[in-house]
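S.,

Sequence below, as promised.
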Amino acid sequence: MHMRLAIRWHTVGAGFLVCLYMFLVFLHLWYYMYQFKDQRYNLSDVKQLYTGARIVADGHGSQLYDFALQADYQAEMPLPFGSLLPFNYPPYFAAVLSPLARLPFLVMYLILSIGQWLAYGCAIWALRFLWGGWSREERFWLITVVFGFPGVHHSARWGNPVLFIFLFVVLAFRAAYRDRRSASPGVWLALATIKPHLIAGLFWSFIAGKRTRSLIAASFALVFLLAGAIIVVGFEGTISFGKVVATTFASGETGAYSIKAASMPNMRGLFTFIGLSPSSVRIGMLIFICSIALFMGWLWRTRATSQSAKDESLCWATTVPLMLLASPHLNPQDVSLAVLSGILLWSHVRCRSNRRHAILCFLLLAPIASQFSFFWAGAAANPQIWSVCNALILTGLAIFSLMEVHDRTTNRSPGPTIY
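The prediction came back faster than expected:
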């Protein structure tokens, strides 16, 4: 009797979650199509990319990070945003996008948006060596969660390139999972420096783990990218990227260029949300970053005789949310990388952890909480609500991963320990 009742409630709960996910996906698709009805397709991220690509394509690469020139270009675009949205990506990304600048704005937007979905699908398929052996129910919920996570939809809808980075990070993980002495993870991480602040933690982890071949490969790849940028953009335009990075960080405190620390789903955003002063936020971020760096140095230390491929998954699952929380600049759609952490965490705990049920509930409910907080933030005209929810999701992933690391290091779970 009790077993039948439990099965019945399990079925009802699963059906309710499926309906919620379907409803949220429908809302995304509806909003995705609605923006074309009133020609509202020139969203901020595409505007930034189109600005940088146009400047390089027109032969003004040396002035790529001249905000006055960027403002002139954006003023010519359809439906101006109202304020400058500076192109603050690396110069080699502008060089890669420059051929697309000859296309109409809408065509470039569609290429980036559809390309992101393709990149995301390829990334999930590249992880099939992990989920290929899962049960039918697990694979069903995998598809439901990875394609129902709101940050993914917003990345594609806004044209933000974070899903390209997601693909590069997945390919780097797959190569490291198969052979952590391989050089190819470094190449993929170098390509992921489209947004260097998102993957800086992985570079530090590789240094701490003495992944020498990967680091050498990454160095050569970055030199190649910078050399290409100098050829296309020019030396002056390339070195100006350092200045725009500092400007972007400072804008988080002043609110210039629509960059606000309070809207960031990281520790910087949480510190700002609780009312700390800018100086206290800087000190708090410095302490947090140093603490995370020390922890990564311990987590990734080299012990070739005891670290297995399974433990590689746990290291990456722990590193991804922590490096996002420690990032000095983070957009809401950047939280899409948390999907990788969730997949790796579940792959690690599904058959060996006594808290796998709690982790499963968290992984299933996190996307729903993120989506409802997005609608709530829109209704209340307060973007901090969505950012705080996403930051808490990252924090939850980090806490569960740290608990698993603790269990593995103290030999509380079956299987070989990490160290």
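DSSP finds 20 helices and no strands in the chain.

Coffee later?
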